Fold this sequence. Notes:
By secondary structure, the protein is mainly α.
Amino acid sequence: MDNGFFKNIEKKTGVNMKDIFDLANSLQNANFKDEKTVRNVIKRVSQIANKPVSKDMEDQIVKSIVNDGKQLDFNTIAQMMNKK
């Protein structure tokens, strides 16, 4: 991939692409039926995005993924975090 492309994304979002790739690599074999794993992923995404997640919101996301079987991806988490 074009390094300039990633630099533009970093400028626009303020998110370090290395952090994103590290997170993506750590998710490859993660067990998303495990509540502790899901909570750790939520906290890590929150840190990378510099967007705090309340305990209530974290609980909702965990329930949705662990109990309801929703896919864990950035879009799902972003949608949940942006709900009002």
